# Entry
Amino acid sequence: MSPALPNEPLPEGEKDRQYVTALARGLQILRCFSHEKPELTPQEIVRMTGLPQPTVWRLCHTLTKEGFIVCAGDNQRMALGLPALALGYAALVRQSLPKIALPHMQALTDSCRMGMSLAVRDGLDMLYIQRTHGDFVYMNDPVGARRPFALAPTGWACFAGYDAGERSEVLDALERQNPASLPATRTHLEQAAEQYAQHGFVTSIGVIHEHLNVIAVAIRSPRSGTLYGLSASGLATEWPKERLMAIGPELVDMARQLAVAAD
# Structure
């Protein structure tokens, strides 16, 4: 059986004697903080994690003592401390793909005025590890920002690039997260997989934002097998689906060149 996704509980009946639940819960709390939600109250963390309030209090107290969480003002609001920043940079600095991809991404941004994203899956989110910014003033999320896997074009591209086992694993996790939305999500993902099989890329038309269209490809590392999503986005008025389809081969070629540098 495949291991559980990050931030996902182990399947019912499956035990791992090496798994430290308390550590996993602490990391689950740290994952709650994001670019969109840099400050949180204990009550918000309880809702986001589903952990009991006393457990959240104890873990937040420990993380505060270690400097990973700091007081952020009134109403018991908390934020990540500088030790968390150091860990983030330590993780990013060893990644060669974001550095190598940046000039390629910037060249396309400069020539086409499109924003580009390089992302990798973390649990059921896509985590941005490189960005360039085009004309669209919204959704210009920085490195470190997240988008839900089920909606992110980079997530669709990764799903299309997964094998059958990986797709099943993600769909099971999405069902546990939100059973009611799974039918619509499955439809989007399966359509993306069909488009990817035919063209080598996926398109997202007005899904992230009504005025934003996106095209995305997958990059699989030949060494680790890690799958990354690479996308280019532009104003819907400037980049209708037909024009996205025309630029698709250029993005596919870029992904092919970058795959050799993927960690």
Q: What stands out?
A: Residues 9-13 have pLDDT under 50 and may be disordered. Residues 106 and 151 are 24 Å apart (CA to CA). The beta strands are 39-40, 69-71, 78-80, 115-122, 125-132, 146-148, 202-209, 212-220, 227-235. The radius of gyration is 19 Å.
